[in-house]
Each structure stands twice: as C-alpha cells, then as structure tokens.
Amino acid sequence: MNEIITRFFSCSPHCKPEVLGRILRDVENLCNTFHFYCRDATWGVTQQEKLCIYGGLPIIIKKSNSDQAFLTPDSREKAPPHRYVLPLQIWLTHLYPIEPPLVFLLSAEQGCRIASNHKHVDATGRCHTPELAAWHPVSSSLCDVVKKLGQLLSAEGLIPLCFGEEGVSSSSKGHATTVPQRLCHGLENDDDGKQTDEHERCVVCFSHKETVLVPCGHYCLCDACATNVTHCPLCRGSVKFRQRVFS
C-alpha cells in the first residue's frame, strides 16, 4: 500500500517528505481502523488519475416503531438494531491534502440506487459532512471524516441506498429505507437462527463472494468489487483476470 501511495504522490510538487509521511500515516490509520483497501485508478470519463481508498462503512440504525409494533415494551427494549455495511469510496487527487478528499457511497448492485433527498448524501452518492466542509490540510484526517460520516448516517436513521422507486422521504423520518440484504453485515441472526458465515462474504462490501482472482486464486470478492480492483486485497498480487464462480 505504501508503494502505491508513494508512487501516486511522487509527481506532486507540494508533497514534501514530511507531507508524504503524514499522508502515509493517515491512510494507514484509516485502512487499519476500517479494513479499507487502496489502489490508484482513473476517475470517470475524464480519466484523471486519482488514489482510491475503498471498503465497507459500518453503521447501526435503531429499528423503527413500525418494526416493533407487535412487541411488548420489554421486548422492544431488547430488540437489536439494524446493522449495515455500506460500500464506500474515498478519492484523493495529487493536490491532497490541500484539496479535501471526495467521499462517495456506491450503488454498484443492479437495481440499487442512491436515494434522492438524503441529508448527507447527494444523488450522485457524494457525501457531505461538516468535517469535509471544514477540511484543513494539516489538522484534518481521513479516519475522523469516515468516523463522523458513520455517526451521522447512524444518527439520521435513514439508509441512503434503496431499490426501485423507494427512497428517503420526509414521511420516513426515523425509518431505515429499504436496502438490499447484501448490506447487512453478519451481526444479526439469519432466519434459521444461525450467525451469517463471514467466510462467505466479500472482504470489501460483505455481500456474498462470487469471483476468484487470477493468478493468485483468492476467492474473496463479489463480482461488483472484483471489477474495481487491480490488485488482490489479500495478497496484493496483480489481477490478470477474474473468474465468476457459480454455486
């Protein structure tokens, strides 16, 4: 990871050794805290080179009153909250940390889209928080930005991803928007009462694994995440091609 970051910022005239050291520590702290991964990539139709940090952002949302309508008061108190892991990407330009990071939620799964009127996420998936608005090149950190984003989304009580025509609306305040089951991390019991097997989940977004990376042979990603990586997240080996596995 350090090699990727150093190579990316080597052409930045502002990136002196002390600045590069701070960037390396900041990214390493973020990746270790949230189990994120890092790669260099091109940005959209402009094909601008940027550094991409990606992974799953865990959030916890309390169950709505409608979910608990048939529970006794004692059962409501003990009812577990909804726990989700949202696919997140953070993009850094060559001018980082002078320029703030670009933080996006993804809607990579077919039929899933960004809700249109969420308080902290716009229709493109870009996240807006006070920490990003007040970004400072020296005192701000990526880890703090991601932590605060998770806290804001949890406190808001609304999932910014949805299926079909459903989305965030003022009438659904305090309720979790309908989201794909793939976003639910293995923290809640399945219908059969057994804990979800994390060994069967994508290491990036926690959906079900379905792709083998070649030539390293690691079976660790869903199809959507596999198309976005150039190096294996487990061994960091280069990915030559991807083999979909059908069960």
Automatic annotation (TrEMBL):
UniProt GO BP: endosome to lysosome transport; protein transport
CC terms in the record's Gene Ontology section: ESCRT I complex
A Pfam family it matches: zf-C3HC4_3
Keywords of this entry: Metal-binding, Zinc, Zinc-finger
UniProt keyword Metal-binding, yes or no: yes
Residue span, RING-type domain: 202-236
GO MF entry, a single one: zinc ion binding
Domain UEV: 1-163
Metal-binding in keyword set: yes
InterPro entries assigned: ESCRT-I_UEV_domain, UBQ-conjugating_enzyme/RWD, UEV_N, Znf_RING, Znf_RING/FYVE/PHD
Annotated PANTHER family: TUMOR SUPPRESSOR PROTEIN 101 (PTHR23306:SF3), TUMOR SUSCEPTIBILITY GENE 101 PROTEIN-RELATED (PTHR23306)
Name this polypeptide is given: RING-type domain-containing protein
Organism: Trypanosoma cruzi marinkellei
